[in-house]
Amino acid sequence: MRSEPNHVLEFPGGYTRSVGPVIGRFLSELRDGRLVGVRTARGRVLVPPSEYDPDTGDDVTGEFVEVGPAGTVTTWSWVPRPAKEHPLRHPFAWALIRLDGADTALLHALDLGELAEGAEPPRSLATGMRVRPRWRTERTGAIGDIACFRPEVTMINAPARLEYDLRGGRALERFLEGIGEGRIRGHRCAVCGQVIVPMKGLCPRDGVPTSQEVELPDTGTVTTFAVNHIPDPRAPEVPFVSGYVLLDGAGVALLTLIAGVPANQVRMGMRVRAAWRPREEWGRTMANITWFEPSGEPDVPFDQIKDHL
Ligand SMILES: [Zn+2]
């Protein structure tokens, strides 16, 4: 609890002092919406700048370097009940923030949203958190020109709801019938000649109906992929890789799981082969192929897959 102080020292109208060329430059740049540090003789960038290198006591070089605006939290202290002098009305953190390009950290308020008084720090608050300043529109050349720092945007939550009925249709039925026999079938488009797999009875490029069946091998090349850290019941343990595989002879790539290789070794152009479940477990479903895994062949050069991304 805070008790009322017995004595107050206050300079009515504020205590005016000159800031010198180094701090002055920092504050002038702040007013213009930029963050700068000063370089020391040893090459370190001090933010906020000072006139002397704290390590050696030598004068700084006078070379100013633009830093940030983003930075990384190096340490923080939670304020569950802000006082009236504090920059934010709701709970926030005081954080030491090392701006990108700087070697020292700046103390500032970190706003994590409109939390109720007394709230615990959000679990997202951690050393290493990436943050950016929120600038005031009216700036005067003071550290308060930055109202606070805020976490970088790392996620969005968009409304996602789609209602639909799905009928396999003749082409997809025929495709799944093939999969049930261990065959991968596609349709060749009579206009562009590309093979579409799984076939949908329509060329996505030309919009014309397709019917000429082609059987494709179960080998192909990874065109693009994503490493996933959110568990999925169909996938192996996290992180797992989902990716597009361009089957040999196909014109469009197939979305599938890629496994049998550490996630950080999957690459564009990697050659893969379907890993089928044991035959006695096959049904008329794409689940007959557990995933695609490396075939051990040499990678395909980027030029050969670049038109299929
Ligand atoms: Zn076509």
- Strand order in the sheet with the most strands: 6-5-4-7-8
* SSE ordering: HEEEEEEEEHEEEEEEEE
Hetero groups: zinc ion
Largest sheet: 5 strands, antiparallel
Overall geometry comes to elongated
| Helical/strand content category | mainly beta
DSSP summary: helix tally:
2
Q: Report the end-to-end length measured between terminal Cα atoms.
A: 61 Å
Spatial extent as radius of gyration: 30 Å
Poorly predicted tracts of residues = none
Would you mind describing this structure in some detail?
This protein is mostly beta strands and 309 residues long. It has three domains: 20-151, no CATH class; 168-216, no CATH class; 217-309, Beta Barrel (OB fold (Dihydrolipoamide Acetyltransferase, E2P)), CATH 2.40.50. Helices cover 7% and strands 29% of the residues. It has two helices and 16 strands. It has a five-stranded antiparallel β-sheet with strand order 6-5-4-7-8, with no helix packed on it. A hairpin with a 6-residue loop joins strand 5 (92-99) and strand 6 (106-110). The longest helix has 12 residues, at 20-31. It starts with 19 loop residues before the first helix and ends in a 15-residue tail after the last strand. The chain binds zinc ion (ZN).
